[in-house]
Design goal:
It comes from Lactococcus taiwanensis. It is an enzyme of class 2 (transferase). Its EC number is 2.7.4.25. Belongs to the cytidylate kinase family. Type 1 subfamily. Keywords: ATP-binding, Cytoplasm, Kinase, Nucleotide-binding, Transferase. The protein is an alpha/beta fold. The protein has a single domain, classed as Rossmann fold (3-Layer(aba) Sandwich), CATH 3.40.50. The protein is 51% helix and 17% strand. The chain has nine helices and eight strands. Helix 1 crosses helix 9, helix 2 crosses helix 4 and helix 2 packs across helix 5. The longest helix has 17 residues. It is globular, with a radius of gyration of 17 Å. It starts with a strand and ends with a helix. Bound molecules: cytidine-5'-monophosphate (C5P). Cytidine-5'-monophosphate binds next to helix 2, helix 4 and helix 8.
Length: 220
């Protein structure tokens, strides 16, 4: 079996990680959530009260980012500390675009992502996977959905976790993050020329997974 690389890019809350995790399980691939890595860098900036990329990088070098499978799914660690939940708080979410726009942070994390993906057999989700991190990935998906639908999905998810959320606020936060991620100078969110565009508005998770797996199986 060929060890392929699959890149899944797209705007915030378009369902990338949900579908990538299922495809990883079904096709026995490693799953790498690159957004989690930028979220960890943001957490470090907040806790160390710094905007200096080198301070953030030094901290992560001393306390590396790692992933492990826990009872509730993939868990994220910063050194020994389990940061799975704290990197999903609103504070981190609303600050992440600023940290992820720093060129030094990007080159540091991209090098790490490329190292992990080197052997293939991987599906990665993010914003610049098809354009920058894995330009030679065998399959590239650009997953989009309307702002309304993305906000509603996130709203339902938050409610089910008991997190109080305002739908209109969520819509404007998602739109603001999309704008920042797609207009930044370094590696903006952009569809790679050879990526397949998939609009998941009105589609089920199973539909999106089937779409990706059908294409992936032709390449394996
Ligand atoms: O995917 P997720 O929403 O967790 O990503 C959080 C943030 O990390 C994005 O809004 C973006 O600013 C940044 N990111 C990035 N490049 C990636 C993945 C995420 O800039 N490959």
């Amino acid at each position: 079996m060929k060890k392929i690389q699959i890149a899944v890019d797209g705007p915030a809350s378009s369902g990338k990680s949900t579908v990538a995790k299922i495809v990883a399980r079904d096709l026995d691939l490693i799953y790498l959530d690159t957004g989690a890595m930028y979220r960890v860098a943001t957490l470090v900036a907040m806790q160390e009260q710094t905007q200096d990329p080198q301070v953030i990088i030094n901290f992560i070098e001393e306390n590396p980012i790692s992933f492990a499978n826990g009872p509730k799914g993939q868990e994220v660690f910063l050194g020994e500390r389990n940061v799975t939940d704290v990197i999903r708080t609103n504070e981190v979410t609303n600050a992440v675009s600023k940290i992820s726009a720093m060129p030094e942070i990007r080159s540091f994390l991209v090098a790490e992502q490329q190292r992990i993906a080197k052997e293939g057999g991987i599906i990665m989700d993010g914003r610049d996977i098809g354009t920058v991190v894995l330009p030679n990935a065998e399959l590239k998906i650009f997953l989009v959905a309307s702002v309304e639908e993305r906000a509603e999905r996130r709203y339902k998810e938050n409610r089910s976790k008991g997190i109080p959320t305002d739908l209109e606020r969520l819509k404007s936060e998602i739109a603001a993050r999309d704008h920042k991620d797609s207009t930044r100078k370094v590696s903006p969110l952009k569809q790679a020329e050879d990526a397949v565009l998939l609009d998941s508005t009105g589609k089920s998770i199973a539909d999106v997974v089937a779409f990706i797996e059908t294409r992936a199986k032709r390449l394996i």
